[in-house]
Structures are given as C-alpha cells and as structure tokens.
Amino acid sequence: MSLSDHFETIEINTDLLILGGGMSACGAAYEAAYWAKKHNKKVTVVDKASIDRSGAVAMGLSAINMYIGLKDNDNKVEDYVKYVKNDLMGITRDDLVANIARHVDSSVHLFEKWGLPIWKDENGKYVHEGRWQVMIHGESYKTIVAEAAKNALSSLGENGKYYERIFITEPIIENGRCVGATGFSVREKKIYVFRAKAVLDAMGGAVHVFKPRSVGEGLGRSWYPPFNSGASAYFTLKAGAEMTCQEVRFVPVRFKDAYGPVGAWFLLFQSKATNAAGEDYMQTRADELKNWAPYGLSKPVPANLRNYLMMLEVMEGKHPIYMQTAEAIKNIAGQIEDEKEGKRKLKHLENEAWEDFLDMTISQALLWASTNTKPEESPSEIAACEPYFISSHSGASGAWVSGPEDMAPEGYKWGYPNMTTVKGLFACGDASGASSHKFSSGSFTEGRIAAKAALAFCTDNNDIPEISAEKIENLKKEMLAPLETFENHKEYSNDKDINPNFVKPKMFMFRLQKIMDEYAGGVSTHFMTTKPLMEKGLEFIQYMKEDSKKLAAEDIHELMRCWENIHRLWQAESHIRTMLFREETRWPGYYFRSDFPKMDEENWHCFANSRWNPETDEWEMMKREIKELVKLDA
Amino acid sequence: MPSFVITDKCDGCKALDKTACQYICPNDLMVLNKETNKAYNRAAEMCWECYNCVKICPTQAIEVRGYADFMPLGGYVQPMRSSNAIMWSVKFRDGQIKRFKFPTRTTPEGSADPDAGFENGTDDIHSPLLRTEPQSLGLEELKNIEE
After folding, report:
1. Catalytic machinery residues of A
2. Do A445 and A419 sit in the same domain of this protein?
3. CA–CA separation, A380 and A322 (whole Å)
4. What is the complex's ipTM, to 2 decimals?
5. Which of A23, A136, A214, A366 to mutate to test the interface with B (most CBs of B within 10 A)?
6. pLDDT in tens, A293-346
7. Residue A581 falls inside a structural domain
C-alpha cells in the first residue's frame, strides 16, 4: 500500500478556477460571480490560507496607492501610464497599465461603500498622501474586501464555492491548454484535483528567495509576507507560459529591520532622508541622475534610482541613513502660530504617524516602543530591504499576458485580456508582469478584468477537457513524494533533520537564499552581480533542482514548506537567467551588473522575456518590442 | 518568539467550532495541541507579526514579543478590536504608555453588498465594462487614453 492510498482524492469540476485568496483573487471572485450568474457558470476559489486575512493585505494597509480621480478630472489615464513607465525606466506595458487605470476608481468607490473608512477633507474629497495615494483607516481593509467577495460568491448558490487551506502544487495541462490544478489540504489527508475550463493564477509574489537581513526570529519580518512563496510564477512557468520582466525584482527602502512604510513620511509629512552627517543625498548626488536620463531626470525620481543614491552613500560608509521625522513634524506643526492649535496639530500628527505603522506593519510600532523612539523627537534609520518578486509595486516580474481588445497594439493581444500564452490560463496581480504599480486597488481591479475575460473564454470554449487518469496518478505521486521520502529513510539516522538520504525544506530554503544572496546580487553584495557570478549561481541552482527530488516532510505542514521552496527555486532560476540575458544595468537600485554598468537604450529598450519549454526542459530567452501608447514628457 | 500563547488564558477555543488562531494564521503557524488543549506558534521565525491571531483570540491569550534578534526587550503593543474600531496600547521600554483608537469600518459586519447600489451598465460579457460600471466610476462612460 503506497502513501497516497492513505489520502482521499477529491475531484472538483468547475468552469472558472481562481487560485489565490488575496486582493486580486477577491476582485476576481467578486466580478466572476456576476457574469457566472448571467451565463450559468460555476466559480471555484482555492486559497492556501483563510480569505479574511490572506495575501499581502492580511495585516491591513494605511493607504490605497492607486487612485486616479477620473470623475473629478484630477488626472487622466495616460498620466498614470507615464508615471509607471518612468518609474520602471521605460519598461512597461502601456496597454495593461492603462486598462487597470481606467477601472481602478470603480474598485475604490466600491471599497468605500462596503465600509472601508477613507480619509476625507472638509469638502468631502479623499485625503491624498501623494498624487495617486489616498489615506485610509485600513486595519480591516482585507476582511471588508473578502466579505464582499464571499457575499458575491454566495449569490451563486451551489455554483459559487471557496476552499481554504488547500495548497496548489501544479497546473494540469492537456494539449497545450490549462485545464485545472492539483493541490492538497494542509489540514487533512486529502488530495484535490480541480478540473476547469479556465484557470486564473492569482497566488501572489515571492518572498524568501533571497537571504533576508534578519536570519534569526526576524527571518519572518520580511517586507512582503513570507507566505508569498512564488506559487504564481511557478504555476505559469510549469504550464509553459511566456514570462516577462523576471529580472525586475523590487528592493524597497523601508524603516530599518521592522520594515515600516515610508510613503506617509516622504509624501504626507514631506520628510527628508539624509546620511549620518545630515546631508540630503537626493541633492548632493543629483548629478548621478543624469547618467540614467531620460528617466532619472523626471519627477518623481524612479524608486530604484532613489534607492541607488542611498546605496552609494552606504557604500562610501556615510550611513546610517535617517528619515528625518522630527524635522518633518516640526516643519508642519511649527507653521502654526497659535500655541494651543500647534499642540493640537502635533497630537494629530503623532496619531497619524503611529496609525501608519499600526495599520500595516505593527512590528515597526513595536520597534519604536522597544527603542523608546518618538518620531517627533528623533529620526529613525531606513535601509534597503532584501529583493522581492512583486509586480504590483515597483517590481514587474510575471506572466506575459494578452492586452485589452480595444487598446492593445498588435502583438500584445492574442485573445482574451490577461490570458497568458497558454490557452485557458489567465494571470493577475503579482502573477502578471509588466503592469507595475497596481498595488492593492489595482490588483483587485486586475482580478476583475481577468475574471470577466476568463468567463468569456469559458462561454466560448464550453467543452469539458478530459484529463488522463495516468496524469492524475503521476501528479499525486509527485505531490506526496516528500512524505514518502521521509517515511522510507527516517529510521536510518538518530536526527530527523540530518540524514544523507534527504533534505528538509528549511535548510533547502537557506541554501537557496545563500546562493541568491552571494551570486545573484543580494543584500550582502550590495545588489551587485556579474556574468561569472550568475553562471556559478546557476551551477548551484542545478544541484538544488536535483536535490529537490529528495525533499522530505514529516507532516502535511512540512509538505507545504517543501512545495513552497520548489516554487521559490523556479522563481530564482528564471530571475538569474533573465538578469544574465539582459546585458546592461537599467535599475541600478534593484540590481547592478558591474560587467555592464550602464543603461543601453539602443539594445535593451525592450522586454526580456523567457519561457521554460515543457517538451524539451530548456529555457528560451527572447526580446520583445516596447510598443507605446503614451510618450513620456520630454 | 514573535506571537506566543499565555498558557493560563488559552482555553483551546473549546466553546467554538474551530480554534480561532489556527483558523486565521496566514502562514499556517498556529496549532492546537490536542493533549494540553492549548494553542502554540510552531515556527516563530516564520511569523510575520501580523497580529491576526492576537486580534482574533476570544480570550486575549496571545501576545507578541518582538523579534529578539533586533528588538530590545520591554516594548509591548497590544490591540483590542471591536466590530468597527481598534484600540491599541503601546508600552515603551522606559515604561511610558500611549493609547490610540482608530475606526476600522463604517458599515455593520457582514453587510457588504456586492453591487453597493450601483447599476450595471452592460450585459455583454465581451465588453470592457466591469460589474457596476460606468456608474461606480462616477462617469457616463469608460475613459480611455485621450492622446
């Protein structure tokens, strides 16, 4: 009797399968419910956690970072496209960004109606943190959005279902079409086989691919959540989909160690960041920005260049770098002449500053408390975090998806909006690439766009694809292999974690993080790498791919950890291969190729795309042209 | 360890149909020990300190002791979350205490109506208009790139 016989297999048939439970998956479920009802279709959502608090907004947020203000003519759709394109040094899909931008305000207005408290000024307008950012009391942001998504699903009755605590391992592909996914329950001995007419990948970004700065207990205090483990990229890669911008990681600069947000300080409070001597490096190093023109000379200065100027300070030993919080507060409160009014303003600002952390990064409040830090009295250190894979912020990695029918240029559309190059497989949120700066509201919106398109695909492709029994058996066997490996070898050694026959997922993850850190431009090399370093890194990645067959799990929780790290490994490999392919440095504050230290507009003003070929097990690398809908301001 | 369970206060959610912290943890860390009937965090170094277990615990049995590899001892941040607001107590290492209260939602829990009173502008599944649009945009029609 094999181990898989102890597991019950549950087969579920659906029309649309939505994988994930974060903001984009909730947007997808919300939108899908409406169109599924009209067309009598079934919608199934699968989340590895519980939808109320899953995904990157699990803790809450203190701002909505994408709101255009179309109804009041505050901005135009193309203004947002310009902002995003400049921030990404010219590498973005105008059509995808514009598509999200023209719909995103609708989502924000819905959030407000559902109960999300958005700050208002005396005229009833949203209070802005910056041009695109609106302030919220966002502790319950995710629970409110999840509630609306669940209520929408329940309107479908038996045709709308969500499953929690199921970890998705692999896509199911038949004749080049994605027809479902396999997974297992992290609570019971159950294997799930989902069969679908269309599949929407919304499983978030990737964290813990690179070694974090903190490696003790603080390992978990990543800026993006540690449970975003690369499932999205793995899913589309294994399906054979073309990927884009897999080199465009994101390195956020945040308050040091606890990684509290800096947006409110920079934008709302107009705070400066300085080196240890109090010098504003954005001014003293302004000349450096000319080397990255035209993008470096635009306002706002791209995030990666702001990072880079700070990194230059650090490399010259001019740190600690400080957010000058006390000075910023003094500048605002000091303008008020009336003493009583001034005190009231100070109290108000203090409240806002603490809420910013308590809403979304509680650890940072805890760090302030444990170091007796009062922002109105003393500055706080900021630093560059480790790299993450997140296309919803200022990174761009993800699947190459079809653009909107009415906007996308030729070559950017091949059917349904947000469909990958694999038939029936759609992607949104951190799973779709080259459409950065969608944040929470844009991710929810992109989920809506993708789900509507996927349901249109279901109505046009209404056949139920057959999946061979042999394929299912193989997927099940592979899924449970780590449990089998542990059972077969555990008696050999006195230590359940140290055994020459297998590797446990935790050490496997540490090995990956060390490789990425040292060879692929992590924190300890100041994000610098070269061709020889990356080629060496790929050698070690190859050993890891072989050793991944010897991952071992004692229980189903550890089985999930095994699979998370297989997913991370694929994200890592595609990242190195794409950085290697792009022979230039374009985002110096994200990674720096010291063998190609300059930006090369002539040869590399293009997308670096990639595909793992499931037939040959080989990687294909290709350039794709940038087709602009909007020109950057001269 | 980041989130931890105060042994005396945890009753294993015996009155509920599921263990609250185990239900909510986004990283699958909180577990109920069936022998002692107490919950615990099984991998402190994978804890994001998201406080979702702290907020949901019906007996206030869960607190957070900041990551010891970079936080000095003595800080304490504890929430009390109701259906429409959250109250935070922040205790500094030097003993000073601050309290903050913020609203969390403007509508009754469970009441989120998907259409939120907006009308749907199209029945066409191939149209770019999404559910509740264009009304929820506050516009007569979808705005595209004008250039």
Report:
1. 65, 129, 223, 254, 356, 393, 440
2. yes
3. 5
4. 0.98
5. A366
6. 999 999 999 999 999 999 999 999 999 999 999 999 999 988 888 989 989 999
7. no
